[in-house]
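Regression test attached.
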Amino acid sequence: MIFAGSNGPGSSQHSPGQQKIMLAHGGGGRLMHQLIDDLFITILVDPEYDAKHDAAICTAGGAKLAFTTDSFVVDPLFFPGGDIGSLAVWGTVNDLAMCGARPLYLSVGFIIEEGFAIEQLQRIVRSMRAAADRAGARIVTGDTKVVEFGKGHGVFINTAGIGRIDHGLEINPARIAPGDVIIVNGDIGRHGIAVMASREGLSFEPPITSDLAPLAAPVMALIEAGVNIHCLRDLTRGGLATALVELAQASGRELCINEREIPVSNGVRAACEILGFDPLYVANEGRFTAFLPPDDLDTALATLRAVDAEPHVIGAVSDAGSPLVTVKTLMGTERVVDMLSGEQLPRIC
Amino acid sequence: MIFAGSNGPGSSQHSPGQQKIMLAHGGGGRLMHQLIDDLFITILVDPEYDAKHDAAICTAGGAKLAFTTDSFVVDPLFFPGGDIGSLAVWGTVNDLAMCGARPLYLSVGFIIEEGFAIEQLQRIVRSMRAAADRAGARIVTGDTKVVEFGKGHGVFINTAGIGRIDHGLEINPARIAPGDVIIVNGDIGRHGIAVMASREGLSFEPPITSDLAPLAAPVMALIEAGVNIHCLRDLTRGGLATALVELAQASGRELCINEREIPVSNGVRAACEILGFDPLYVANEGRFTAFLPPDDLDTALATLRAVDAEPHVIGAVSDAGSPLVTVKTLMGTERVVDMLSGEQLPRIC
């Protein structure tokens, strides 16, 4: 994804003096957003490009393209429902899909730690190819680097992706409008819990598998069905809550969600209760939220069900208020949802 | 660069059984080529794409694009003549240029080790932006990950790049023809020696600085001058020797070079003699070789001199023989140049 910006409080109070990078700087929460604002948005990324998107929208020779990158450092490399290879391919495919782009080409960069078993690398590479084939994308270029034992961790994978936008729809936070319905395409929180459980040697009965999945097909189906999608966002690092807070800030709208309508499996709910996590902040890798005009809701739901998604309406955009997210809790009270400072679960992607 | 393939001896004798990745697998030599052949070319990369190029040539919406990626793990992060930031930007810009593509858009992915100083990150980010500006490319999207202390090494940076090909020239090894002259754009070996000296705390008098530089301008100048470029290749990991062996294998031609004509500074020559390195195999980050029909040589030399390069004719393509590289040594004898098994100097890019 792009370095997503934050306009939240404190975002410009970050002095680079003697400060050190902490794990929380990679967690998708407020610290990461501060770092991104101060260093990457301010200095690095060309100001013409909208840093609030999952991918950059570029033109080249008359073609309208989406371009995105992600590095993957997930620990462990293999987890229930996927591995770093399928994650690296679908993570980037999904960032393209969130711009309404059809994934075309992927690049792959490996950083391998000395001593890593070639058999494991082979499994990962096979998984990447299968994932690319399933998403209709082609891996066309790549690179390999090796670092000394103890200066990496198994394998890190970067993917970058190019997608083509061949429709006139503008899909971005600026189009979020009062009255829009907010949907998610399935139950949340399974990826983060599955990776964490695998890393910590916890087991649940029944086992919790990651929701990792390619999202180009459901998005293309919505576009082909004529649904006037206003905005899409995948629910990765920081989970549903962080995605919604980012979108509230980027759009200047108040987003009202209903906790009762947010789909969470019994297993994830139980695991979160035991471990003290809030499923709203747990990462997903096959889940997205879509903002739609209410007239298009029935078409959208039918279209998503036809591609095996289990969509739920979780809330709506208010016509009043400031850029924030409010949730009506299971108890019937209302609370404001904020970003966490860091991430509940590091290295889940 | 793309996973460059090797058809050399032994390339299919690589069994993935219990084998482990070694540093030499990242060195640009024969072991890296074996790994790439066995895993990446065979399994990962779409077979339609020519794995012998620095970048993949793709089309999107009618536009002819080049797409490439590289990860950078250089140690140390700052070295005489550059840093990991400028290296990461120009390394990818140069891979695009080697396809005759004008660099347009770059993505950046950071993998940062917990505890890394934010001040250093800021220096690197500023360097990247300046390098992109100088090369006429725009950084449009990015990603940040953080790994635990001791599971990374400072910062690793991946860049991917999109370039546009807006001329009819085919620039690839298949066009290397008997009689072509082989030129380089300046003296070789400075990058590898500068990084190694900086890492090991060696100092030379006068100091040796990296040749790191963006190569889009000289390549675009050659194209605009109407030079019928047959092939280009940057002289990175594995140096001039490895690049020429790759090109001999990819083209099926015998390349004859003259050691006396290969420009090596006195400092690099002295450092190599003391340290036991062969400058032919030392990495460069601002040097390329071009294959041209002899009729275009004068135009090419004048064009390169006009953009401050110091081109040298180092040899020619033979009209006989098998796919190999022969060098006429300073002593007047002739020897065959082969790939090294690994790399003389690890982590120089």
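Expected vs. actual: identical. Helices of chain A lie at 30-44, 84-97, 118-135, 190-200, 216-224, 239-251, 266-275, 297-306.
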